[in-house]
Amino acid sequence: CRWQAALGRQMGRGGLGLWCRSLLQDYADACRDVALGVKERPGKAGLYLSLLAGATICSLHVPCDASFESSLLEASGALLLLSPWVRNGTSEGHVQRLMKLRNQGRLRYQSLVFFSLVYQAPFDAEVALYQAHCKHLKPRWMDFPARTLDVGFLGRWWVLSSKMKDSDINEEEFKHLPEHLRTISSRNLHSAANEKLFEEKYKPVILTEEQIERAEKEEQQQPLQGESDQIFLHYSYSLLPRG
Fold it and tell me: Is-contact 157 165, C-beta < 8 A?
């Protein structure tokens, strides 16, 4: 019995070694085929590698729920620093809605490997109401796009960022202006010409010889004009009747 057990163990070891060698051989053949395919079709291989690298980068930079809460609080703080008269109504309304849902516990976060979603739930997760736990009363999947609040991709929450753009510009202040004054394009600013004029005022003034001679002549004529004015005033005063 001992000899049979030893022989079985020996065969088992030999079988395991054979299985490992065949597995390594399969991997080597697969790597060889991949290298041959890359050599034959470099464009296709480059496209696959680019897609793989892009997917890896996206998955590594998926924002988490803590980053959304931090971005939301930062946006709320930025609006609080602004006067109510200059706040953008769209930015303030969106942030106020998110803050209300956050305080009610109705914000949900879902990671989808390459991006993440923040969506709205009808109830708090700890609510014990019948409507919150009945499967027949839960929101349908067809309504999910309408409940989506933000999309996180490449470390950024895109909807919140777009809503906070120009958050310090109140569009209501300009609604009474004519249509052509409500929008300003880059051509209306003339920033390049203004900057050029602003820089030119610091340049030294260079006068030509002709300008210098003209200035000297004007300085010489000023005393003569002053003397002639005094003589004219004295003569006019002498003509006045005395009595």
Answer: no
Residues 115-139 have pLDDT tens digits of: 899 999 888 878 878 787 788 888 8
Residue 71: name the closest of 81, 82, 63 by CA: 63
The model carries a pTM of 0.57
**pLDDT tens-digit map of 138-193:** 888 888 888 888 899 888 899 999 998 888 888 887 777 777 666 766 666 666 77
- 97 within 8 A of 70, measured Cβ to Cβ: no
Q: What is the dihedral of CA 70, 116, 124, 72, to 10 degrees?
A: 20
Enumerate long-range contacts of 78-84, CB under 8 Å, 24 or more apart.
Answer: 78/164, 78/167, 79/167, 82/167, 82/168
Contact criterion met (CB below 8 Å) for 156 and 67: no
Whose tokens are 């490992």? That residue is 20
Q: Are 66 and 73 in contact (CB under 8 A)?
A: no
DSSP 8-state secondary structure symbol assigned to residue 139: P
